[in-house]
Design brief:
Layout (H helix, E strand, L loop, with lengths): L50 H13 L3 H13 L28 E5 L3 H12 L3 E6 L2 H4 L8 E4 H6 L3 E4 L13 H4 L3 E4 L13 H8 L4 E4 L6 H6 L7 E6 L2 H13 L3 E4 L6 H10 L5 H30 L7 H35 L8 H8 L1 H21 L4 H16 L8 H27 L2 H6 L2 H27 L16 H5 L1 H13 L2 H11 L11
Parallel strand pairs: 1-2, 1-4, 2-3, 4-5, 5-6, 7-8
Antiparallel strand pairs: 6-7
The protein binds flavin-adenine dinucleotide, NADPH dihydro-nicotinamide-adenine-dinucleotide phosphate, protoporphyrin IX containing FE (HEM), copper (II) ion (CU) and fe (iii) ion.
C-alpha cells in the first residue's frame, strides 16, 4: 500500500496554506473528504493529533522557552508506533458534566487470546482510553507482549472483569473456550475471525460462536481490519469496521467502541450478514493485482502491435526473416511504451480528481469508486512503470552489443565503401540521438528518485512537503522529460510514409496520447483563474455556498 500521501491535495485548515497535508494520511484516503484537522474528519478520528499540528504545537512550546521539553515530546511522539498511538485522546468525549454516566472510553474491555490480533487490539484499545484485560491460557508468558497498561490474566479471570469480550482466537479453537460458558453468560462476545477461503464453512464463524454460547450476545466485527491497521492506521477516518448482530443494543456498544478507536462503524444488519462480512477480506484485491494486470495487458497489446510491424510485415511483404528481432528489439520497443503509458496513468487520476472538484465545485463529494481505486493504486502503477523503464534502459544499452547489430554495421560499411560514399555523417540524426538518450537518462534518474522515496524507511524520513515535491512535482517532470525523450526519438518519423507498416503508425505515436493529455491538463490547471478556483475548493469553499468560508 502507499506509504503516505496517496493523495496530497488539500490543505491544512489551521494554517490555511494550500497543498499542505499532514503526512500521516495513509492510502485509502480519497482526495475529496479528508483533512488533517480533527474537527473536520470522521467522528472517530478526532483522536488524531496530527503531526502537522503537533509541529506547530512544538514550535509554540519552544517559543515559550520550553524547547527541551518539546523536543523530548517530539521524540516520544516519533517513537510511538503510528505517531499518536500512545495518547488516549478521546477519553474525555461526550460525557462531560454527567458524572453518573461511565464514559465509554473508561470502560473495561476483554480480549481472549494473545496472538497478533489480540496484541494490536489491546494496544489500540489502551491508546483509545479503555481499560484492557487480556485472557490467555498462559498469562505469565504472554504478559510481556502487551502494553503495561493492559492486564494479562487467565481466561476466566479476564472474562469476569468485563461485559464486552473480543474473541481473538481462531474458529478451530472456539470449542476450547466452552469451559468459560458460565462466566461468559449474558456478555457481549465480539467475533473478529476470518476464514482462509470463501464460504469454507457452512455457517459463519460468528454464528458458530453464537451456537456454542447461546447465553451470550455475539457481534461480528473488526475482521476487515488487519492487526497492522490496528496498530498503525485508522487515523484517516474512513477505515470502516463492518458490524452485525441480532442485538441492537450490543451492536451499538461495539459500534461506539469502534468509533472511539478511530474507525467508522458500518451497521450491516443482523447476524445473517456475518458470512458476507467474513468473506470481504478474502475478496479484497491485493494492491498489486490490478496494476500488474494493467502492465501485462499493455505489454501484450504493444508487443503484438510491434510484432506485426517489425516482424510479420517484412515476412509477408518481403519474405524477410526478421524473427531474431523478437527477444530484444520488439521487447525494447514494447517495454518503454508500457513504462511511458503507465507513468502517464499515475498522473491522470489526479487530473481527473481535479476536474471532478472543479466541475462539482466542492471537495466534499466522494469520487466514484473506480477513481478512488485508481488513486490508491498510483504507487504500484508508478513502480511498475519504473521497473519497465529500467529494463528498457538496460536493453537499450545492450543494443549495440548484439551480433546482429555488428553484422548490420559491417554490411552498411561495405555497401558504402562499394558506393564510394565517404561522408555518411548526418548532423541532424546525430543531434537527435544525443538529445533523446540524454533526456531519457534524466527521466530514468528522476523515476529512480521517486522509487527510492517510496521505500517506507526513506518516506518516513521526509516531511510531507519533501515527499510531495518529489512524488508530485519531480514525478510530473519525469513525465515531461519522458515525453521529450519519446518525441526526439520519434522526430519526424510520424510523417514518413515508409514507417507505416500495414497502415500502422510507429508505436511511439500511439503512446503519446495519454501523456500529452495529462501534461496539457496540468498546464491548464496552472492557469491563474483555474488554479485559484481549485485552491479555493481545496480550502473548503463550495459552489452555491458562498460566504461559508
Ligand atoms: C517510481 C514511482 C514511485 C511512486 N511511489 C509512490 C509512493 O510511495 N507513494 C505514493 O503515494 N505515490 C507514489 N507514486 C505515485 C505518484 O508519484 C504520487 O501518487 C503522486 O503524488 C501523484 O501526483 P499528482 O500530482 O498526480 O497527485 P496529487 O498530488 O494527488 O494531486 C492531484 C491533482 O491535483 C492537482 N493539485 C494538487 N494541489 C493543487 C493545488 N493546490 N492547486 C492546483 N492544483 C493542485 C495536481 O496538479 C493534480 O492534478 C509513485 C510513482 C512512481 C512513478
Ligand atoms: N492477524 C490479523 O491481522 C487478523 C486476525 N483476525 C482474526 O483474529 C483471530 C486471531 O488471529 P491472530 O491473532 O492472528 O492469531 P494468533 O495465532 O496469533 O493468536 C491466536 C491466539 O488464540 C489463543 N488461543 C486460545 N485458545 C487456543 C487454542 N486452543 N489453541 C491455540 N490458540 C488458542 C492463543 O492465545 P493464548 O495462548 O494466550 O491463549 C493465541 O495467541 C483469528 O480468528 C483471525 O481470523 C482478524 C483480522 C485480522
Ligand atoms: C537510461 C535511460 C534511457 C535510455 C538509455 C533510453 C534509450 C532509448 C533508446 C535507445 C530508444 C530507441 C529504441 C529503439 O531503437 O527501438 C528509446 C526509445 C523510447 N524510450 Fe527510452 N531510454 C531511456 C529511458 C526512458 C524512459 C525513462 C522512458 C519512459 C518512461 C522511455 C521511453 C521511451 C519510449 C516511449 C521510446 C519509443 C519506443 C518506440 O516506439 O520505439 N525511455 N529509448
Ligand atoms: Cu489541519
Ligand atoms: Fe497531520
Amino acid at each position: 500500500m502507499m506509504v503516505k500521501h496517496s493523495a496530497m491535495v488539500g490543505e491544512c485548515c489551521s494554517t490555511g496554506t494550500p497543498q499542505q497535508l499532514c503526512s500521516h494520511r495513509v492510502a485509502g484516503d480519497s482526495l475529496s473528504t479528508q483533512q488533517c484537522c480533527p474537527s473536520s474528519r470522521g467522528p472517530g478520528v478526532a483522536s488524531g493529533l496530527c503531526c502537522w499540528h503537533f509541529l506547530i504545537l512544538t514550535a509554540w512550546l519552544a517559543s515559550w522557552g520550553r524547547f527541551a521539553t518539546s523536543l523530548f515530546w517530539l521524540k516520544q511522539y516519533r517513537r510511538m508506533p503510528g505517531g499518536d498511538m500512545a495518547k488516549p485522546l478521546l477519553g474525555h468525549r461526550s460525557t462531560e458534566g454527567d458524572p453518573s454516566v461511565v464514559p465509554a472510553a473508561g470502560r473495561t474491555i476483554g480480549v481472549l487470546g494473545s496472538g497478533d490480533f489480540a496484541r494490536s487490539l489491546a494496544i489500540r484499545l489502551v491508546c483509545s482510553g479503555f481499560k484492557v484485560v487480556v485472557g490467555s491460557r498462559n498469562p505469565k508468558r504472554k504478559a510481556c507482549l502487551f502494553p503495561s497498561a493492559a492486564e494479562v490474566t487467565f481466561q476466566a479471570e479476564a472474562v469476569k472483569k468485563t461485559d464486552v469480550i473480543f474473541v481473538a482466537v481462531f474458529r478451530e479453537h472456539y470449542s476450547t473456550l466452552c469451559d468459560l460458558a458460565d462466566v461468559l453468560a449474558g456478555k457481549i462476545l465480539v467475533d473478529v475471525s476470518n476464514n482462509t477461503e470463501i464460504n469454507h464453512h457452512k455457517e459463519s464463524n460468528a454464528e458458530y460462536l453464537a451456537s456454542l454460547f447461546p447465553a451470550c450476545t455475539v457481534v461480528k466485527g473488526f475482521n476487515v481490519v488487519s492487526a497492522w491497521t490496528l496498530q498503525s492506521g485508522a487515523r484517516d477516518g474512513n477505515k470502516q469496521v463492518l458490524i452485525c448482530s441480532n442485538s441492537q443494543e450490543a451492536k451499538r456498544t461495539v459500534a461506539e467502541i469502534a468509533q472511539i478507536m478511530g474507525f467508522t462503524p458500518v451497521d450491516m444488519g443482523c447476524m445473517s450478514s456475518a458470512c458476507e462480512i467474513e468473506n470481504i477480506p478474502l475478496r479484497l484485491l491485493p494492491a498489486w493485482k490490478i496494476p500488474i494486470l494493467l502492465a501485462l495487458g499493455l505489454f501484450l497489446c504493444f508487443f503484438t502491435y510491434n510484432l506485426v510491424r517489425q516482424v510479420i510485415h517484412p515476412y509477408i511483404r518481403e519474405q524477410k526473416n526478421k524473427f531474431y528481432k523478437i527477444p530484444v528489439e520488439v521487447v525494447n520497443t514494447t517495454l518503454p511504451c508500457v513504462a511511458y503509458v503507465m507513468l502517464s496513468l499515475v498522473y491522470l487520476p489526479g487530473v481527473l480528481a481535479a476536474c471532478s472538484q472543479l466541475y462539482y465545485g466542492t471537495k466534499y463529494r466522494r469520487f466514484p469508486d473506480w477513481l478512488d481505486q485508481w488513486l490508491q493504486h498510483r504507487k504500484q502503477i508508478g513502480l511498475l512503470s519504473f521497473f519497465c523503464a529500467a529494463l528498457h534502459a538496460v536493453y537499450s544499452l545492450c543494443l549495440p552489443m548484439r551480433r546482429s547489430h555488428r553484422y548490420q554495421l559491417i554490411e552498411t560499411a561495405v555497401k558504402q565503401a562499394m558506393e564510394k560514399k565517404m561522408n555518411i555523417w548526418v548532423e541532424e540524426e546525430v543531434w537527435r540521438m544525443e538529445i533523446y538518450i540524454s533526456v531519457g537518462i534524466i527521466a530514468l534518474g528522476l523515476l529512480s528518485l521517486l522509487a527510492i522515496t517510496s521505500l517506507p524507511s526513506i518516506a518516513n524520513s521526509l516531511n510531507w512537503r519533501e515527499f510531495s515535491f518529489i512524488q508530485s512535482t519531480l514525478g510530473f517532470i519525469a513525465l515531461v522529460t519522458s515525453t521529450l525523450h519519446t518525441l526526439t526519438y520519434g522526430w519526424s518519423r510520424a510523417f514518413d510514409e515508409n514507417q507505416y507498416k500495414f497502415y500502422l503508425p510507429p508505436t511511439y505515436t500511439l503512446t503519446l496520447l495519454v501523456p500529452c493529455t495529462v501534461i496539457l491538463a496540468k498546464v491548464a490547471f496552472s492557469l491563474p483563474c483555474i488554479q485559484h478556483r481549485l485552491q479555493r475548493i481545496r480550502r473548503g469553499w463550495e459552489k452555491g455556498r458562498e460566504g461559508t468560508l
